[in-house]
């Protein structure tokens, strides 16, 4: 199989990258050694710019429907004084989705956009022609190379 891009790692960065590349018309393979949905240790918060991207990609409603908490307001601590800053009612706010939700949602959106997904698959090496990478070596869940 020939791909324009192979993305290693299907969590939020790899999933969103694969989604955008597939929507741009590239042939994309997304691999991850884990199976999904799966959790990962994360103090994850999506700031407003990321929330706006989820909205633009058509994924924000699904994230919110998962029960994801909205971060409404924040506190700025100056050491001698603390200032509580509320969010505007009805405005987009930062979000703190579970990684099991966000990563899986982005992975499926990438697949829906045309990305080929290979889970429980590890990158074991690169094939090259001089300085140019021409392919990859993979090992699948059954141990086949």
Written account of the structure:
With 145 residues, the protein is an alpha/beta fold. It folds into two domains: 1-42 and 99-145, 3-Layer(bba) Sandwich (FAD/NAD(P)-binding domain); 45-96, no CATH class. It contains four helices and seven strands, in the order E-H-E-H-H-E-E-H-E-E-E. Helix 1 packs parallel to helix 4 (99-112). The chain is elongated and about 60 Å long. The chain starts with a strand and ends in a 6-residue tail after the last strand. The relative contact order is 0.22. The model has no long low-confidence stretch (mean pLDDT 90).
Short description, anyone?
This protein has helices at 12-23, 48-56, 60-65, 99-112; strands spanning 5-8, 28-32, 74-77, 82-85, 116-119, 122-129, 132-139. By secondary structure, the protein is an alpha/beta fold. Strand 6 and strand 7 form a beta hairpin.
Write the layout of secondary structure elements.
Blueprint lengths: L4 E4 L3 H12 L4 E5 L15 H9 L3 H6 L8 E4 L4 E4 L13 H14 L3 E4 L2 E8 L2 E8 L6
Parallel strand pairs: 1-2, 2-5
Antiparallel strand pairs: 3-4, 6-7
Structural features:
alpha/beta; 4 helices; 145 residues; FAD/NAD(P)-binding domain; 26% strand; 2 domains; three-stranded parallel sheet; two-stranded antiparallel ribbon; single chain
């Amino acid at each position: 199989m020939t791909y324009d891009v192979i993305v290693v790692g299907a969590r939020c960065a790899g999933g969103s990258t694969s989604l955008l590349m597939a929507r741009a018309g590239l042939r994309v393979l997304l691999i991850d050694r884990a199976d999904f949905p799966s959790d990962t240790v994360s103090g994850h918060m999506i700031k407003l710019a990321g929330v706006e991207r989820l909205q633009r990609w058509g994924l924000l409603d699904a994230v919110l429907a998962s029960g994801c908490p909205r971060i409404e307001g924040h506190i700025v601590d100056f050491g001698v004084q603390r200032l509580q800053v509320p969010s505007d009612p009805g405005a987009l706010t930062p979000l703190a989705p579970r990684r099991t939700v966000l990563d899986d949602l982005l992975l499926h959106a990438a697949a829906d956009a045309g990305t080929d997904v290979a889970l429980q698959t590890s990158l074991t090496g690169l094939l090259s022609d001089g300085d140019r990478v021409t392919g990859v070596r993979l090992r699948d869940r059954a141990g086949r190379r």
